[in-house]
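can u do me a favor
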C-alpha cells in the first residue's frame, strides 16, 4: 500500500476513535464470548500486554479474575484510555499487582518502549489488527509483538468477520466517500460506517484464515488454536492463539 494512503487510513481511524470514544466505549461494556473463552484458558500469573485496550473491559475482567501478575494496556485514543483508567482505578487500588495504561500508537511509536517493560508471557489484541492498513504495517506490528514476548509466549487475537453478516455488509461505503479509489487499497480492505452518537467512517480489513496463517509464519509464530465466536450467529469474529516459534 502506498505510504500516503496508509497514513490517510490511519488518520481516519484516529479521528473516528477520538470523536466517538464515548459512544464506542458504551457499546463495549462486556466481554465478547470468544474473549471470555480465552480468559478462562489463560495461564495463571501471566504478565499481560493488552494491545488496543480500548475502554479497559478486558483489563478489568483480568484484574477481577486474579489471573495476571502484571498488565500493560496500550491505546492511541486518549478518550478510551480515560474510560479505561476510570474503570480500573477503584479495583487496582485494592490490588498489589501492577496494572498500567499507556498512550501508544501501534503505527508510529517506538516499540522499544514496550520491549523495555517486558518481556510478557501473553499479548492480546482483540478486534485491533483489522484496523491497521497495509500488509507491511500489519507484519511489522506482529513482529514487534513477537519481540515483546518470552520464548514461551502466547498471542491471543481476534478479527472481525463482518462479511458474514448481511446487516454489516450493508454498512460498507464506497472509497470515494473519503477521496480514494478501490485501486489505492488492498484486497480485503473496506470502509464501514458508524451510526451511534453521529455518523462516522472506519477503515477495516477482512482477514482470511490463509492470510492469518501466512502472517503468523512470517512474524515468528505458529498457530495453536483457531475458532469462531460472537454475534447472533456465533461466527462474527475469528479467534486464534499463536505461540512463539523458536526455530
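np, heres the sequence
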Amino acid at each position: 500500500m502506498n505510504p500516503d494512503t496508509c497514513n490517510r487510513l490511519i488518520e481516519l481511524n484516529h479521528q473516528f476513535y477520538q470523536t466517538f470514544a464515548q459512544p464506542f466505549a458504551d457499546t463495549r461494556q462486556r466481554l465478547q464470548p470468544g474473549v471470555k473463552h480465552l480468559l478462562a484458558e489463560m495461564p495463571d500469573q501471566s504478565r499481560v500486554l493488552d494491545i488496543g485496550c480500548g475502554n479497559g473491559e478486558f483489563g478489568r475482567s483480568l484484574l477481577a479474575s486474579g489471573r495476571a501478575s502484571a498488565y500493560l494496556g496500550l491505546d492511541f485514543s486518549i478518550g478510551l484510555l480515560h474510560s479505561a483508567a476510570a474503570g480500573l482505578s477503584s479495583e487496582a487500588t485494592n490490588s498489589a499487582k501492577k496494572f498500567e495504561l499507556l498512550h501508544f500508537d501501534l503505527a508510529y511509536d517506538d516499540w522499544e518502549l514496550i520491549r523495555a517493560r517486558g518481556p510478557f508471557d501473553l499479548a492480546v489484541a482483540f478486534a485491533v489488527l483489522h484496523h491497521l492498513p497495509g500488509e507491511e504495517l500489519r507484519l511489522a506490528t506482529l513482529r514487534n509483538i513477537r519481540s515483546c514476548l518470552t520464548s514461551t509466549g502466547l498471542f491471543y487475537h481476534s478479527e472481525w468477520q463482518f462479511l458474514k453478516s448481511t446487516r454489516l455488509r450493508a454498512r460498507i461505503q464506497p472509497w470515494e466517500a473519503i477521496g480514494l479509489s478501490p485501486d489505492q487499497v488492498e484486497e480485503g480492505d473496506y470502509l464501514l460506517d458508524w451510526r451511534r452518537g453521529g455518523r462516522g467512517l472506519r477503515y477495516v480489513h477482512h482477514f482470511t484464515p490463509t492470510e492469518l496463517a501466512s502472517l503468523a509464519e512470517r512474524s515468528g509464530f505458529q498457530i495453536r488454536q483457531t475458532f469462531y465466536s460472537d454475534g447472533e450467529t456465533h461466527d462474527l469474529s475469528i479467534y486464534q492463539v499463536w505461540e512463539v516459534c523458536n526455530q
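The chain has a mean pLDDT of 89. hope that helps!!
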